[in-house]
Amino acid sequence: MNGFVTVSTGAGNQIGSPSLPIDAMLMPLADSGGLTSVHVPNISSPVIDGGNPTGCLDAAGTELILDQRGVNRPYDGPDLDSIATCDIGAVELNLIFSNGFEP
Ligand SMILES: [Ca+2]
Ligand SMILES: [Ca+2]
Prior knowledge:
Layout: no helix or strand
């Protein structure tokens, strides 16, 4: 191990730098359902729909159908194009309120 990390520049990857970091735009740690507190992404966060477009997979390649809170994933992000793509991270932003309507 040489202390460096190999970063893929594959399609869809978002790579910042020390001089131009990428702000994930996460909300403060809070109880948003589930057993643990989470950082829910802000509505303008680049993590929303930033996950693998072929599916939400863990490191072993198993499909992830729930986020850390136990909420179904993926959901269609703010583009509302009816294409549901996973958000990057442990939380899937769901814009549909429990009453079935969007905000
Ligand atoms: Ca999503
Ligand atoms: Ca979408």
